[in-house]
Amino acid sequence: MHAEVLVSLALRQVDKVFHYNVPPSLAGKVQVGSRVLVPFGRRKVEGYVVGFSPAPNPADLKDVAALLDEGPLFTPHQLALARWMAAYYLCPTVKALRAMFWPLLQVKGPKKVRGLWPAACCEVPDPRRAPKSAAVWQVIQARPGLSRKELAEAAGVSPRVVDAMVARGLLRSEERIESRDPCQDLPEKRIKPPVLHGEQIRAVSKIIEALDQKGGRQVFLLHGVTGSGKTEVYLHAISAALARGKQAMMLVPEIALTPQMIDIFRGRFGRQVAVLHSRLSDGERYDEYQRLRTGEAGVVLGARSAIFAPLEQPGLIILDEEHEPSYKQEESPRYHARTVALRLAGYAGAVVVLGSATPSMESYCQAVGGGAYHLLELTRRVGELPLPSVRLVDLRRELQEGNKGMFSRDLREAIARRLSRREQVILFLNRRGYSTLVVCRECGLVLKCPHCDISLTYHVSGRLRCHYCNYSVLAPSLCPGCGSRHVAYLGMGTQKVEQEIRRLFPTARVLRLDSDTVGRRGAHREIIDTFREGEADILIGTQMVAKGLDIPGVTLVGVINADISLYMPDFRASERTFQLLTQVAGRSGRGEQGGEVLIQTYSPDHYAVTCAQNHDYQGFYRREMALRRTLGYPPFTHLARLLVTGRVEKEVQEAADFLAQAVHAAGVPVELLGPAPAPLTRIKDRYRWHLVLKASVQSVLREAATAALDGFSGTGRYRRVQVSVDIAPQSMM
Ligand code: ADP
Ligand code: ZN
Ligand code: ZN
């Protein structure tokens, strides 16, 4: 038998297994999942062992040169998943595999520290003759493993006393593994689960039934209005999975992975939960991976990439807010965590629960009318609380009546009323910064990023920033085009809202939550805790305030402008707007005082807005599906997008034309839209063109895209142009 190795070059051309001979020195040590060094061409490259089989040409095999780590880097499920991802998303297998095991390679290993232990048999120090040693002795009996410094400090003696005891053999020094626990400063208070209400019981028992069934994957769509207690359903389902010796995964969107959420899980499952998100240090992530690999932790709570966590036997996979666009990774491998979860569950025979108050069109249509998913519904809020009443404010009329400010009279009054009653307010605007458009009133020049075709946002720091590449520059006092002093700051962001609120309500205590205020570690938690504890009256923010927050004191949610997402050049613009409005509205009225929502909009008749107003998911679904059917968009068709980028626009355009011809030449039944410049025409100095392929069967898309890519790498003509394929794209920008 010879080792099948994938070499670690992320190129489509070498994405196949190569056979190597395992030399006697490594026999028995090289296994599936091993990272090895192998000769490849004239150099040595890293590779991963994915199997063993007899090579077709055993005579000219080369030897595996070295074994790079001890244990395997990936599980059999992960390997199967990576292979499927490579075929499905047209990416190199090693790229998909690396997305799974990279945390294991970021640090050398577990963190080891020196600790001290009491020696097994020795004379106990006498408290009268050696009071200091006796104090140390007492501490180390109670807390063995402390470091020299910790021990001296705890005993209130100089470290030299400790050193002397080590020298006399009273204490022995040993290395121990210290776990880098991302939650160690959180109190681990066990929380007793509440008694489930009727709809929750029905949902949980259906899921448990599925967990108890032998056989293939089962998928549930849990459609529950905001505040209906979906999280509690997940928690019970996870308990049930653990009780059956199965492991569970719980995925949430990165910004919904709040400290509150982590507290809830730790409170219920203690150290059985491993937490994975982008703010962990490499060491913390490594240790969480180890705890999962060894089985010490059986529950993963994490964002998108936690779907790749190394669970031996996942039995339950939950995606909360399954409709969230952030489940799609926007760089290679361009996977969607929901699609991957469904596939992984297929391999593992696991139960999948997709939850949302506003399910994606793709998922909901699978759960109704004979689709493959089971629909579970939570139609009411916990405790029979009503959904908040939603009022629309027509900004056109507001302007006609002479109000040019960012707040309508209604919204101002509503805020004032809450402040006088000591209730809390959330204000939502999905744009950060102060002013989103800086333009010269004399010559019309719009200040844009020199690297992107994007207007710069003014921040209160006095700088202009590009929100795509982070370029920043001091705001000029004169127009760089004509020297005029009349530079206008138009368009508003959360900073401007904050300033205006402070001007209108000078005594209100105001907090802002957006990616500019949560830079420091722990800042996110502080802001939310302060608000939850009632130490602030108004919370202003971007999407970060729209998701997950469960704060009973909030009786008013104000949407400053509902139209921002509505007119994006993207066929999902209405869906995104409906979802966002429903989510943010759902933050209001979670306490006994009830709640209200005010949505300011220039489009009060748009169905995305009116359906959100009426809490009418079904109505929205029907309207949106009818439109998608007419226009031939998903879920009625499948899409793929080829994005072409490069520094020279002419080359990009020519390459895009070439790809279009290659698609035509492939002779498969796809519809081709474009090539055309992408809505974001230039980012980070690269021009962007795209082609959108549409087909009724997804495999046809891959056929066409593969043909185009093969033709493209075959010509060798556009060496400075990059092409990326996006199967089932979530963003058309
Ligand atoms: P959703 O995720 O559906 O918006 P949550 O899971 O945030 O709703 O639940 C809303 C609130 O109701 C939370 O504070 C939760 O702790 C509480 N809750 C959930 N189920 C119950 C129950 N059966 N009894 C009492 N409180 C509950
Ligand atoms: Zn000017
Ligand atoms: Zn830029």
Automatic annotation (TrEMBL):
Name used for this protein in its record: Replication restart protein PriA
Similarity comment text for this entry: Belongs to the helicase family. PriA subfamily.
Residues binding Zn(2+) 1, per UniProt: C440, C443, C479, C482
Job description of the protein: Initiates the restart of stalled replication forks, which reloads the replicative helicase on sites other than the origin of replication. Recognizes and binds to abandoned replication forks and remodels them to uncover a helicase loading site. Promotes assembly of the primosome at these replication forks.
Boundaries of every Helicase C-terminal domain copy: 463-643
Cofactors named for this entry: Zn(2+)
Gene3D superfamilies xref list: P-loop containing nucleotide triphosphate hydrolases, PriA, 3(prime) DNA-binding domain
Entry GO MF terms: 3'-5' DNA helicase activity; ATP binding; ATP hydrolysis activity; DNA binding; zinc ion binding
SMART domains in UniProt: DEXDc, HELICc
Keyword DNA-binding attached: yes
One GO BP annotation of this record: DNA recombination
DNA-binding listed as a keyword: yes
Catalytic activity: Couples ATP hydrolysis with the unwinding of duplex DNA by translocating in the 3'-5' direction; ATP + H2O = ADP + phosphate + H(+)
Subunit structure: Component of the replication restart primosome.
Sequence ranges assigned to domain Helicase ATP-binding in this UniProt record: 211-377
GO cellular component, one term: primosome complex
Residues that, per the record, bind Zn(2+) 2: C449, C452, C466, C469
Entry's cofactor comment: Binds 2 zinc ions per subunit.
Record InterPro entries: DEAD/DEAH_box_helicase_dom (IPR011545), Helicase_ATP-bd (IPR014001), Helicase_C-like (IPR001650), P-loop_NTPase (IPR027417), PriA (IPR005259), PriA_3primeBD (IPR041222), PriA_3primeBD_sf (IPR042115), PriA_C (IPR041236)
Keywords assigned by UniProt, alphabetized: ATP-binding, DNA replication, DNA-binding, Helicase, Hydrolase, Isomerase, Metal-binding, Nucleotide-binding, Primosome, Zinc
Documented EC number(s): 5.6.2.4
